[in-house]
């Protein structure tokens, strides 16, 4: 299980190193080349998010005694991801302002308004992402509860089956006792046994059989 986590770690390191390099190049480029680089970085950051989700799932399956170490590593990777997203956001906003000024000839005041609008939209997207993550967590916890319920039901079913087996054995013993008692009475030299003594004889015979 931990080998999968380490594989994700290697992929994470490779992609984030490339993303860091590309974010630093964005301000130095122009035109179509810059546009393509921005799109490429955005796609790679999405891959990194998916890697973090996979790593989080792997940590949940790691034995408890080793989980703390992997949780610490995962936390540092998430912090690194947050920094990358902030750096990319700043470069992307600056790039958007530059393109907008070139196409529309906006003045400085209008550019600031657009920047504020972009920041607001970005914050909304981040809030939506957090809500999705919370929903995913609830789904995982619900699945765990369902597994526990199924396990309990399976255990209860086994108990019921064992109880049924004991009942069948008891019924068989009672039938055997009844047959033995009937045979004894038929072979007895005292054919006339008082009816009031029958339950007592029957009860004592069951005790003898059970003690065997």
Task: Tell me the β content.
Answer: under 5%
Number of domains: 2
Distance between the terminal alpha carbons, to the nearest Å? 54 Å
Strand elements, count = 0
Radius of gyration equals 38 Å
CATH topology of the largest domain: Methane Monooxygenase Hydroxylase, Chain G, domain 1
Multimer state:
single chain
Number of helices, counting only DSSP H or I runs of 4 residues or more: 5
The CATH architecture of the largest domain can be named as Up-down Bundle
Helix and strand succession?
Answer: HHHHH
Low-confidence stretches: none
Shape: rod-shaped
The overall pLDDT, averaged over residues, is 78
By CATH, the superfamily of the largest domain comes out as t-snare proteins
Q: Percent helix among the residues?
A: over 70%
Largest sheet: none
Going by helix content, strand content and strand pairing, the class is: mainly alpha
CATH class of the largest domain: Mainly Alpha
Secondary-structure topology with pairs:
Elements: H1 2-25, H2 31-61, H3 64-104, H4 108-187, H5 198-211
């Amino acid at each position: 299980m931990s080998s999968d986590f380490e594989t994700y770690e290697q992929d994470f390191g490779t992609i984030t190193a490339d993303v860091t390099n590309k974010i630093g190049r964005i301000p130095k480029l122009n035109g179509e080349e810059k546009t393509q680089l921005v799109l490429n970085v955005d796609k790679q950051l999405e891959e990194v998010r998916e890697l973090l989700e996979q790593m989080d799932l792997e940590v949940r399956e790691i034995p408890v005694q080793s989980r703390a170490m992997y949780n610490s590593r995962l936390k540092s990777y998430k912090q690194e991801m947050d920094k990358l997203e902030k750096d990319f956001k700043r470069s992307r906003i600056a790039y958007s302002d530059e393109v907008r000024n070139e196409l529309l000839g906006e003045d400085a005041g209008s550019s600031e308004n657009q920047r504020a609008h972009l920041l607001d939209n970005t914050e909304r997207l981040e809030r939506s992402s957090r809500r999705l993550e919370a929903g995913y967590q609830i789904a995982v916890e619900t699945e765990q509860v369902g597994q526990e319920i199924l396990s309990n039901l399976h255990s209860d079913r086994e108990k019921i089956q064992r109880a049924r087996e004991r009942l069948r054995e008891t019924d068989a013993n009672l039938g055997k006792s009844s047959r033995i008692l009937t045979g004894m009475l038929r072979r007895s030299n005292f054919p006339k046994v008082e009816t009031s003594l029958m339950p007592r004889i029957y009860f004592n015979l069951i005790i003898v059989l059970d003690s065997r």
